[in-house]
Amino acid sequence: MKGVVFPGDRRVELMDFPDPTPGPDEVVLEIRASGMCGSDLKYYRAPAGGGTAALGFAKGIQGPVIRGHEPCGVVVAVGRNVSPRQARIGQRVMQHHYRGCGVCPQCATGWMQLCDEGVDEVYGATGHGAHAHYMKCPARTLVPLPDELSFETGAAISCGTGTAWGALHRLGLQGDHTIAIFGQGPVGLSATQLAKAMGARVIALDVAPERLARAREFGADAVINPKETNDVVGAIRDLTHGLGAHLSLDASSSPAARRQAVQCVRTWGKACYVGEGDTVTLEVSPDLLRRQVTIIGSWTFSTVGQAECARFIADRGIEVDRLFTHRWRLEQADEAYRLFDTQTTGKGVILPN
């Protein structure tokens, strides 16, 4: 089969790999949709020869890794120890793209990325991912895809949309809240869409006019371009009767946006960070202590949360497929990532089969 790899320096190659065969506790998926996520770009942009460990992961396979960590497809093979309750041939599934020990308290509750023994594999980073015709993974990492949802929606939930869902729940979002969402890339735009479905008022921020226009389409009540606004925090306060937002979410990874995300919330407010990397500098007393502000870090979601997100979207008929502005064949991966690297477009998805 063919699989997409990143040799480094913004290059993409389509390489030949053996078709996978499941081990005793594993399954093989025929990939129907493999989403493109902003966190893929750190591997795409990495220097050639840096290796996976140099990108932050100490464990994993040697040699070229098939990329793509938003898998969705159909089970086509099962190992001998896999019960029908875990997986069956023909089942439509998403995949939780981490493998931990499987028995510690974190793994047992579906948080395999927080495994007490250290995560063994991150599919698409240290283990073969979903930018290929087939993918092998443990049966315990599968999450059923509701019949009402497309494979593309399932791919979005498998990371970007699921990450937004997890962050909104960590924040305790309610329908009477106003939330400021910094960054309207795939995760931020998903947060805008979900927050509106939960009844909240959304203030969307981004430096790209194209992304702000998309946020409007997805229900944002107000939009702010920090490049065109001298006082972002003041602008948010003006939209909230001088009080500030109840909640904020940073999906941009920008140090300035992270600082503003804390400063823009009202007394007793909460700010959540989901964007990976970089730093933030805060004045502890005025920004935090003397306003009783809570800062939350949120890293993706559990298998339970992934299933709950899918059910919420199915029950409310949320059009997650609208996130995708570009659909690509496997052999178009180079063109796909060159466009995605501009970070001005919407979400892309690769359709291998």
From TrEMBL:
GO terms for molecular function: oxidoreductase activity, acting on the CH-OH group of donors, NAD or NADP as acceptor; zinc ion binding. The keyword Zinc applies. It comes from the Bacteria. Keywords: Metal-binding, Oxidoreductase, Zinc. InterPro entries: ADH-like_C (IPR013149), ADH-like_N (IPR013154), ADH_Zn_CS (IPR002328), ER (IPR020843), GroES-like_sf (IPR011032), NAD(P)-bd_dom_sf (IPR036291), Zn_alcohol_dh (IPR050129). Pfam families: ADH_N (PF08240), ADH_zinc_N (PF00107). Coiled coil: none annotated. Residues 8-350 form the Enoyl reductase (ER) domain. Transmembrane segments: none annotated. Gene3D superfamilies: Medium-chain alcohol dehydrogenases, catalytic domain, NAD(P)-binding Rossmann-like Domain. Its cofactor is Zn(2+). PROSITE patterns: ADH_ZINC (PS00059). Signal peptide: none annotated. SMART domains: PKS_ER. CDD domains: THR_DH_like. Belongs to the zinc-containing alcohol dehydrogenase family. This is Alcohol dehydrogenase. It comes from Caldovatus sediminis.
